[in-house]
Amino acid sequence: MPSVTRKSHFVLTTERLSYTNHDMQNESFVAATYVQLMFEYLKQRQIAPAQVLGREELALLEIAQKGGSEGRIPRVTFSAMLIRLQQQLGDPIMALRMGQMITPAHLGVLGYLILACANLGEALIRMDRYGRLVHDAHEMQIRQVDDQIELSWDIPSVGLDEALFVELGSTGVVQFARNITGLNSPMTGVGFRHRAPTGLAAYVQFFGCPVQFEQKVTFLRFPLSYLSLPLRQPDAVLLDILEAQATQALNLLPKTDVFLQDVRRAVMRLCRQGVPTLEQVAEQFHMTPRTMQRRLADHGTRFQPLVDEVRLQLADQYLQDDRLPLTDIAELLGYSDQSAFTRAYRRWTGVTPHERRRQLGV
């Protein structure tokens, strides 16, 4: 069977799109109900939230506990909470444990909508269609190759915040699929972009297959036959009702600037190959450079400032990971050497990368 690739929005996945201008159109959000996972994880470990979380984080937990299903919080805030929890608790597989606690309630109307589907394939269609209700500004590739389905995410960062969020999301996707089918179906392949954490055996045990790290993309692979697995509580009437409700909720979400998001993603990918050029990006969109310039102008920006913005955002993420030396960060951002990266970073922020790391306590 030939390989088929398409882009899709998907639930519980991640691609960080909160850029330095923090424009609401470009910031990524997650559903407040997802924060409830943190509370339940702490409760399971018999830890009072006030012992490990700050005042603002406790306020978010309170909103989630009260059933604020329509609330949304910035993705970066949620990721910061994950980092704080892991640092406070010292649990290297915290995200893996937390993801295994997922229920339909954590996904709001989308969770119950999926639950009412007839089979896993129908559930995947709804995840595709209504994924923004849980986490917006994310993108997944779905590939069918022979008798396998691969879900993959080309996430630009390998910092601690992305590692935790991706592990939580990937675990949640698999656990939720197992919950709604009633089967402990193993994956055939799992890969993450970040380095292998302590406790690798726990990942292999949960996913039921070899788990690879430091891969080019994050991916989940499973047999094509899984798509026909029947769900435990199909309900065609309820499905129609919930789908109408989900459509209404989706229409009420803030509109995102899809074109600029797509251009930023293209720039992120090209950074790994060197300095992104206008010609390279325009080619990916099947445009002439002049047309690309005009489209960017229509969206209130220009190419070089956009490239600088993306590189700064990536640099700040990479600098949070003490395992990445500055030479590697420079290479990841497409600079010829570390000194070129240092000059650019000082121009953007007024401080050097070394100074920024000291400020961050890295």
Q: Could you characterize what this model shows?
A:
With 362 residues, this protein is α+β, with helices and mostly antiparallel strands. The protein has 16 helices and 8 strands. The strands form 2 sheets. The chain has a 6-stranded mixed beta sheet. Strands 2-3 form a two-stranded antiparallel ribbon. Strand 6 (189-191), helix 8 and strand 7 (211-212) form a beta-alpha-beta unit. It is globular. It starts with a strand and ends with a helix.
Low-confidence stretches: 1-26
The total strand number stands at 8
Cα-atom radius of gyration: 21 Å
- For the termini, the CA-CA separation is 48 Å
- General form: globular
Order of helices and strands: EEHHEHHHHEEHEHEEHHHHHHHH
Q: Which structural class do the helices and strands define?
A: alpha+beta
Relative helix content? 40-55%
Percent strand: 5-15%
Average pLDDT for all residues? 82
- Biggest β-sheet: count, sense, barrel? 6 strands, mixed
Strand order of the largest sheet: 1-4-5-8-6-7
Q: How many helical elements?
A: 16
